[in-house]
């Protein structure tokens, strides 16, 4: 038995109440109860279950607690670092969740009459676009306007069929491999919204790549930057925790993402992660927001610079990611402990219900047996009462002994079960049942209470608990023997009254 040095006075009121409840149910000593309650985290239901069922080899509660305390990697910040980090936090632009329509339709293309009517406007738009492209370096806002016009124009004249997000991602990957050959870039074959949700749920980084096939730097960007061995190795490394999603500006989903991100220069990439200003609450995992662009990467970048910006953003954001992972681990551990407690409580409750059910069944069985015994006793009493009533009724109707002058009389000597003998004459014309009735009612023949008014019990069939046997040669005179006493026995006979078990006789008859 374990011993403990803990004083009961040192326990909290909650622990004292748990100890009192536990000892009241189990009857265990306090010295042995306290260590068991400590191992059960002072959960009374778990402790009671372990007392009756035994403790498991591996304690799930201790496992959950050990997993609930990950190494605290959160850095200790100074006041200046906190203020600087807060300013950096406020500059992180949000990454909205873009969900295309569930049933995308084909892009609307006007008919031939409308094309003729809209031809002058299309020509004017084309000329203005060319003019803006020439004067774009001189005016700051023209590149943004030109990019929007170009995106709208490419969307308007594109013959690409709109697909669901998953099918759009699969088409982008297929076309990317057809144009640039087989590669090891792990593009996710999911829509942007699903990729964003996965990164938020697993606390990973989402690297979004949006390409514009019509851009002059697109092919060079893909071949020298995206397909660079160091970039591929970095994205494939599991320690980087990066989910890669790509799209073409010609597709509706990628165009919506570029518009939401305010993209003004292609090719474009962005590193997205959980932002501190919206993910600190416990509802982060289910929140619809909480992702921000921590590293926008616009334009043609060498592989080294591309990776340098990504790593720098990840390093600066790592403390927040570690904090969120620690909070997530704590929530998972708390949920695991709660599930273990609920499971132990359910098992204990199920066993209590089973014990109560068995107790009810045993009580019902006992009551049924008592009821059956009571009914059987009542039946025996009723049978005995009817048997006495029948004997009194039959004793009155036994014919008197014939006179000595009756030549047809039959003399019968009876040896009774107690060893005594009885001598009597019977009318020769009477049936054998008359002798049986005489033996059965012999004690009542001289009774003064006999009266002709005694009625035969209704529904009662009397069975004689004996049989008449002639010893030499042995002959059994059955009560149902055909004929009169004179015809069956003769002028005289010595008969033995042999007791029989009525139940055994019935079984033999069956």
TrEMBL record:
MF terms in GO: ubiquitin binding
Alphabetic keyword roster: Coiled coil
InterPro entries listed in its UniProt record: Thioredoxin-like_sf, UAS, UBA-like_sf, Ubiquitin-like_domsf, UBX_dom, UBX_domain-protein
Name of the featured protein: UBX-domain-containing protein
Pfam families given in the database record: UBA_4, UBX
GO CC annotations on file: endoplasmic reticulum
Organism: Microthyrium microscopicum
Segments forming domain UBX: 405-474
Record GO biological process: ERAD pathway
Region span, Disordered: 325-388
